[in-house]
Every structure is written in C-alpha cells, then in structure tokens.
Amino acid sequence: MVCFQIFFTHDGKGWGLRTLEQLPAGAFVCECVGEILTNMEQEERNNNATSRSNCQAHLQCSEKGLKDEEALCLDATFSGICFHIFFTHDGKGWGLRTLECCDGNLVDVPVTIESPDRHYYHIAFFTSRVVKPMEELTWDYRIDFDDDTYPIEAFKCLCGSPFCRGASSSKKRKKRGRK
Ligand SMILES: C[S@@+](CC[C@H](N)C(=O)[O-])C[C@H]1O[C@@H](n2cnc3c(N)ncnc32)[C@H](O)[C@@H]1O
To answer: Which atom, in ligand 1's list, is nearest to the CA of 9?
Structure first.
C-alpha cells in the first residue's frame, strides 16, 4: 500500500496530496469512488451552493453526442472515497488517455468490472512516470478553461507549465470579471 500525505501547497493551490515513497511508472494509486450522476444532476448539484462540488470526475467524457442518462459523472461530495479530491491540476493537453502527452504525474484509467458494456463506473489512477518521494500528485482535470458554459467555474490555474491552458485563458477570465 502506498503511503500518502495531505499537505498545504506552497504555490496557492490549497491542499494537495503527495507520496512519501518513490512510485514506479504505472503504479496503482487509488480508485475514485462516488455517486453516479447524470450530467444534468451534476449541473443541478453545482448550481446549488450547498452541494457544489470539487470532487467530481467524468466517466464517459471521451464520447460525443451522449444522451444525458449516458453522460455520467462520479461525485464524491456526499459519499465515496475521496483521495482524488486532493490531486491538484496540472495539464496541457486534451484527450488524455495516453501516458506521453500529460503534464500531470497521474492518469485516470476507466476500469470495466463485472460488465463488458461500454459504460465505465470505475476510474482508477495510475502514475504516468516515476514519482519521487514527497512529490505532489497531479492530474489533468481536462477542464476547458475557455468554456463559459462549463458547469463549474474554472479556477485560475497556477500549475506554472508554459503549456498551461488555465493561465492562457486569464484574459477571458478578466473579460468575464473573474480574478
Ligand atoms: C480537487 S480540489 C483539490 C484540493 C484543493 N486544493 C483543496 O485545498 O481542497 C480542486 C481545487 O484545487 C484548486 N487547484 C487545484 N489545482 C490547481 C491549480 N493548478 N491551480 C490553482 N488552483 C488549483 C482549485 O481551487 C480547484 O478548484
């Protein structure tokens, strides 16, 4: 079992999670567990200040044109195992299902359990490279920072990557009156 530590990041991203030991590339880190919501249910939850969530992950995000009942998301706000809620964001690319194009040191992998259908209800996190002891665990949230219609208001990304999508959209944020 991997030993983690929750710590307060030094660069303004709030709480983060780091590993106390070196992890090899491809190591299992944790599973993301929560309630399964449709996109509409997720949006309703996020429009409500008391249930607004930071601990959600999309399940079928790579498929286009899904019906609401097929476009599902895992939400660990009220129940679930939420180690992943401490993963901070670090990312430059899109469509991340490969290990090479991701800035973050974790990748999320949909896992089929019990049923061979195309709906994935389990997401597991694995390291995309060797992660050193005390290194922060980061994952590309795949937020479209330029999308005004995205149900969760995007934060100003402080990952510091020259390829960061969140930092480059700061002009648009100012236009919308966000800091
Ligand atoms: C899943 S939570 C991660 C835990 C969070 N840092 C905390 O203290 O609870 C996601 C939130 O962390 C912050 N965050 C994560 N990555 C960030 C980044 N690269 N730049 C700025 N804020 C970040 C944002 O406030 C974001 O909404």
So the answer is: 6
